[in-house]
Specification:
Blueprint lengths: L14 H9 L8 H35 L21 H9 L2 H32 L5 H9 L20 H5 L6 H11 L4 H9 L4 H12 L1 H17 L2 H6 L8 H6 L9 H21 L1 H11 L5
Helix pairs in contact: 2-13, 3-13, 4-7, 4-10, 10-14
Length: 302
């Protein structure tokens, strides 16, 4: 007479599940790890908020000062708000000087300069990233060394470019920074995409414009915004090369509010607020591309 042996239930095939379950260790509620992560997040948000307030404080003061009467801009003790809101300061700032002409001059210089910079940087970056030729790496390093050469050493008087728009645009339109930024981004694009385009008969220009450029749109946005803001805020070079009001840009125009006719601080603040609007709108319009471009191009500190 035989009896069936009753053994423990089979565990074949359950080892991986149990191992996986054991391997997944998640912090429990109230555990020190989770508390530390929450504290770290709160500290980070607090520090970021403080830094943001420090950056916003001058702009808030500028806007509020633009709405004050002239005698209350630097009143003692300082007041955040004036006794009355002077919306007319913006109208007076626009008519006190040919400020509209200053805005148009700066827009012309910034748009043309940014366009030329994007085109030249893209072409040179593509050459250094994809084309094969002798001394390519050495030439690229030599090209980068131009970053340490002061642009002010270019003497425009000898070629008759004093008081001209080309003197404001061209010295800064060929930048090694833009070439370096786009080249580093181009190197991350798979070479197989270009090889497929070559099989279809595409040349270098078509590959750059129809394959590389759409993928590198975030990098172009970063370079475009940086270049536009650089042209828009440029003060030292226009101060050296421009002597007549027909070519005056916004930074030069702002200092004219503190000229021989007295110090019109409320008009200066109003004009500065107006001049800040184009750059703010540009950043807001390209914010999505800026975040992606900074993260992907290595400018985010990673």
């Amino acid at each position: 007479m035989t009896s069936d042996a009753v053994g423990p239930p089979s565990t074949v095939g359950t080892g991986s599940r149990s191992g996986t379950a054991v391997g997944r260790v998640t912090p429990r509620r109230g555990s020190p790890t989770r508390r530390h992560s929450r504290v770290g997040a709160v500290v980070n948000q607090t520090l970021l908020s403080i830094v943001a307030l420090l950056f916003l404080a001058p702009m808030v003061w500028m806007v509020l000062s633009a709405l004050k009467p002239g005698a209350e801009v630097f009143s003692t003790p300082p007041k955040l708000f004036g006794s009355t809101i002077q919306w007319s300061n913006f109208r007076d700032a626009w008519s006190y000087l040919p400020f509209g002409r200053f805005i148009l001059n700066t827009l012309l210089v910034s748009v043309l300069g940014t366009t030329i910079t994007l085109v030249t940087s893209a072409m040179s970056a593509y050459a250094f990233a994809r084309l094969r030729f002798r001394f390519r790496e050495g030439l690229f390093v030599l090209y980068l060394t131009t970053l340490i050469v002061p642009q002010e050493i270019i003497v425009m008087q000898r070629i008759g470019w004093v008081n001209s728009f080309q003197a404001l645009i061209l010295p800064w339109a060929f930048t090694a920074f833009g070439t370096f930024l786009l080249r580093q981004f181009f190197l991350t694009i798979p070479i197989e995409l270009e090889e497929a385009a070559k099989i279809d008969g595409a040349g270098h220009i078509r590959i750059l414009t129809q394959v590389i450029a759409p993928i590198a749109a975030p990098a172009f946005a970063v370079l475009g915004v940086f270049t536009f803001i650089t042209y828009w805020n440029s003060f030292l070079w226009p101060l050296i090369i421009i002597n007549d009001t027909n070519h005056v840009t916004v930074p030069l125009g702002l200092q004219l509010f503190l000229g021989q006719n007295g110090q019109q601080w409320q008009l200066l603040m109003a004009a500065a607020t107006i001049s800040m609007a184009p750059t703010v709108l540009l950043v807001l319009a390209l914010q999505k591309y800026l975040v992606r471009g900074i993260a992907l191009s290595g400018l985010g500190g990673r």
